[in-house]
Amino acid sequence: MTVWSLDYHARIRTLFFCMLASVLLAPQASAAPNAEYLQAFEFVKQQLERISCLVGKGYPDYTEKGKWIIKGPDEWTAGYFPGMLWKVYDQTRQTVWLERARRWTEPIADFRNDERDLNFGLLFKPTFAEGYRLTADKRYRRIALDAAANYAKRYMPEGKYLCSWGRLDDPKEQGYIIIDSLIDMSLLFWAAQEEFNPFLFEMAQNNSLTILRTAVRDDGSSIQVIELDSQTGWKRRDHHKQAFSVTSCWSRGQGWGIYAFPEIYRYTKDYRFLKAAQKMADYYVAHLPTDFVPYWDFRAPDIPNAVRDSSAASLAAAGLWNLAKLVTDPARQEVYRQTAVKTIDSLTRNYMATGEAADNGRILLHGTLHKPAGIGVDESLIFGDYYYMEALLDLIRDGRD
User: Fold this and answer.
1) Which of 161, 155, 149, 160 has its CA nearest to residue 190?
2) What is the pLDDT of residue 179?
3) Which of 189, 357, 365, 389 is most buried, with most CB under 10 Å away?
4) Are the C-beta atoms of residues 262 and 323 closer than 8 Å to each other?
5) Quick one: CA dihedral 100, 104, 106, 109, positive or negative?
């Protein structure tokens, strides 16, 4: 290919994103001013107070007919509620929030050496690693490092990936990885930096590359579940669990990649991860409905009557905001940034709990946990609230313009 040809295609891509940016910036509903974001944050704090009074010693997971389903500290979502409490403490430095964060963080420590296929990153990074950052409590650091070391036992050295599901002593279960597990890599990268441990770094990088190679399609869409040959790391087949089909694109899976790949790039400086984040973001942006909140699957057969997933929207918004800081193309940067802003504006104005729906601490409505199984469909999801809060705080700190 000639230099002229490369330049031509680069100009075409730039033109596309300039056009998309002009659409995003066209006069619509005005973007939420900072005061509106601050008001939304106060609402989040109010709802977290309500939840802390309602759940006892448990952990909110998702709602069923508007009421929280409460799980134990070993559930994969358990780290999100205390993670939100740590975020409030980080913003306010009020003792009451520190006490709450510690109260719901501590019980998770018992599972740092668990041999089940737990999401160790989700359980220990927003709780103990974050608690250590905010308090300098060395016990928290030790617990998070123990969890990372235990998670590393799931590494399959020949295949260069971390087994996502099942028992490690069962060959039939050793070959499964899921795109969701990208979110867990931050714990391994953090631990690698804390202990100057190149082996943990290599595991996290290799696992991320394996998921990139096997789960991200050429058009930027993604598949959730991949079955690998544990000895080679090569794909045997694709599976769908929470998606509509093996050829569709589950919107929250897309969100996991948009959120995680920029963070992985920050740790590794490996351009392949930044490029993957852009591919997935471009697909996501191109397939969004007009209110910036995706359907549960981008290829659901009943669109536009399909249910939405506000958790996918909040997750992607947080990822797009960070991605915009990493890309160098001004047009792409503006598209990602404005999509994040428009998404948070839409969630704030159209998807927040109001009236009786807010009585039990719900924050975002219209999330979808597991559509094929009929679990948490058109409900509130604690991780959707977590990523909404994260993106909201990013916009408050960085400013929307």
Assistant:
1) 149
2) 97
3) 389
4) yes
5) negative
